[in-house]
Give the backbone structure.
Amino acid sequence: MGLATARTVPSPREHVPWWRRLLLRAFPPPVVPVGPPLHRLAADLHRLESEAERLLGDPSVLARGQRLLAVRMAYDLVMLDAARALEVPVPHDRAPFTSHERFMVSVGLTAAGLRW
């Protein structure tokens, strides 16, 4: 078995026909979205908002404070995803938000056209 050199190992470009290289330059592959779709984010925001309202209205729920904190953290994370998707400026790139920051991000998302 010999040593692999540039002459013995073909470059990957040699295996791609010229017309395919031309097509790939003219028509690049589509950009695949990184995050979840916007309708899913809007549905999650709606669901988490109604869950927070339910927790605030029901005093018989066990560990209500911890559940409310968890719902608010999840709500803030979904708001961050939606803000990234719609390119809405956020005060900082981490959760949780203060109530004022949460309000400002929700105003920005609504101004960008997201409804939940």
User: Anything to note?
Assistant: The chain is about 55% helix and 0% strand.
